[in-house]
Design brief:
With 489 residues, the protein is α/β, with parallel strands linked by helices. It has 3 domains: 75 residues, Archaeosine Trna-guanine Transglycosylase, Chain: A, domain 4 (Roll); 123 residues, Rossmann fold, CATH 3.40.50; 227 residues. 28% of the residues lie in helices and 20% in strands. The protein has 13 helices and 23 strands. Strands 19-20-18-17-21-22-23 form a 7-stranded parallel sheet, sandwiched between helices. It starts with a strand and ends in a 14-residue tail after the last helix.
């Protein structure tokens, strides 16, 4: 087993695949100091001001002269990013790999939609009734039988005291969740005096399957818990008519997400997810890539894959919009990575971003969708949302992701509204947190081909789509978060 990995021929640093000690020889290189697992070591002299290159792209500049065998990290390397960037459309499209047709056992809904769970969801239009929603979920948990997979409340603090685009974002996101095919029935719970009114929400839901949606306004009922229970029983009767049947993998939509990343994220878990995504897309399936601020520094690697100039213009505009968002709030675009990322070996935002976009595989980018919008085209879509784990995972679910592949090198327990598969970048994490982790990508660092890991992961994805529960589902971890930007009244 190799102890260091040079990812691309152009790289002047390599990544430690295990903890390395000073004086040890690694890949023909004598180490001048200790290198933690996932961290970088210089392969040749790097002069002060010279680019540090990883993944074949600059990830920063040397802040001091660096000798071969020295540790390269935040003490001697800095970001190259600023608040400005310009992009050119230079398409480099690659064909998808061949893949055997596959299928999973899913639920056929109306209007040709497909779900992978048959659940009852309670969605408050305003934070004031969040506790009522949770009480309804607890009191009606017994409905999870005879084909119903569970009863869940998704609480949030918004839906009132919001204005303008903030208010519109909340409305779009909640309406998109109401349309999600993993929900066999949805109870929309309102208070009655919030500025996200029932009438406004109904307009947002125009065209939705009303047989699967009920409304309850708490201020209008003497006993909202009794009436809510009655409506949930009605929804359960409808949902129980649905049965699993064989569905081609081309109907599956997966969300791609990372959090608590480390220096192995871009080497093991993210490439495995990207290769798995390519296999799914080769069968006609769909994938959603988000976390737009974690594209900063990796724009060239991603934008060159846009299917045509129209997609490029919209994707580039989305990235520019996020830069403006940072500047408007007086924040540096490179205020990333997190302390945990740095401890795991990620030095700059470029380092993090180039590892992050590995989740998107090699497929062409077919579309760029806004926050709260649903997926419109098959293939790979770039979705507008920030990097925050809960906010971006909720956006993936609202856009139509049936499940989310979440890679992590540090570990995290949370679950999105849809099944969330946790993919460990390293085997020690997988072994330590087996109550959180679903898949071990660590063998890639020990020589397993990425393509083989991708096939293992695809099998798990199809099993999960067919009803196998994720660790987060087993633990009962489900939540949403809404992206807020504007004034609170």
């Amino acid at each position: 087993m190799e102890s260091i990995l040079r990812i691309a021929p152009e790289d002047n640093v390599a990544v430690a695949l295990r903890p390395l000690e000073m004086g040890e020889e690694a890949g023909g290189l004598l180490l001048r100091e200790r290198i933690p697992m996932g961290h970088k070591v210089a392969l040749r002299p790097i002069a002060k001001g010279e680019n540090v290159v990883k993944y074949g792209y600059p990830i920063g500049r040397a802040a001091a002269d660096i000798a071969p065998g020295e540790w390269v990290h935040v003490h001697n390397a800095v970001t190259r990013l600023s608040g400005e960037a310009s992009f050119q459309y230079t398409p480099r499209l690659r064909p998808l790999p061949e893949a055997e047709p596959a299928s999973f056992m899913g639920f056929r809904r109306g209007e040709g939609r497909v779900g992978i769970r048959n659940e009852l969801w309670i969605i408050p239009t305003v934070g004031c009734v969040g506790s009522v929603a949770q009480a309804l979920a607890r009191e009606n948990a017994g409905l999870a039988r005879d084909g119903i997979d569970g009863v869940y409340a998704f609480v949030h603090p918004y839906g009132c005291s919001q204005m303008g685009e903030d208010h519109a974002r909340t409305r779009r996101l909640l309406a998109a969740l109401c349309r999600h095919p993993n929900a066999g029935g949805v109870l929309v719970l309102s208070l009655g005096c919030e500025n996200l009114t029932k009438e406004e929400f109904l307009r947002e839901l125009d065209g939705a399957d009303r047989e699967r949606i009920r409304f309850l306004t708490c201020q209008e009922e003497a006993d909202e818990l009794s009436e809510g229970g009655r409506l949930l029983r009605e929804l359960a009767e409808t949902a129980r008519r649905d049965r699993r049947e064989s569905v081609p993998a081309s109907e599956l939509v997966v969300g791609l997400k990372c959090g608590g990343s480390d220096g192995l994220s871009g080497i093991t878990a993210n490439p495995a997810v990207g290769a798995m995504s390519d296999l799914l897309l080769a069968q006609g399936g769909s994938a959603l890539l988000t976390e737009i601020p974690e594209v900063f520094g990796a724009e060239e690697a991603l934008l060159c894959r846009c299917r045509d100039r129209d997609v490029f213009e919209r994707a580039a505009g989305m990235i520019e919009g996020f830069r403006d968002y940072f500047v408007r709030h007086g924040q540096a675009v490179y205020e990333n990575p997190s302390p945990g990322n740095k401890a795991g070996g990620i030095t700059t935002l470029e380092d993090k971003s180039l590892g992050c976009v590995q989740k998107g595989g090699t497929a062409p980018v077919e579309d760029a969708a806004g926050y709260g919008e649903r997926v419109r085209r098959r293939g790979l879509t770039l979705l507008c949302a920030p990097g925050n784990d809960l906010v971006s995972s909720t956006a993936l679910a609202a856009a139509g992701a049936h499940l989310i592949l979440f890679t992590t090198g540090r570990g995290t327990p949370f679950g999105a509204p849809v099944p969330t598969l946790k993919i460990a970048t390293n085997t020690p994490l997988f072994q330590k947190k087996q109550n959180w982790m679903d898949f071990d990508a660590g063998p890639i660092a020990r020589g397993e081909p990425v393509a083989q890991a991708a096939r293992r992961l695809l099998a798990l994805v199809l099993d999960t789509a067919g009803g196998q529960r994720t660790r987060a589902e087993q633990n009962g971890y489900r939540e949403i978060a809404v992206w807020k930007d504007g004034v609170t009244l």
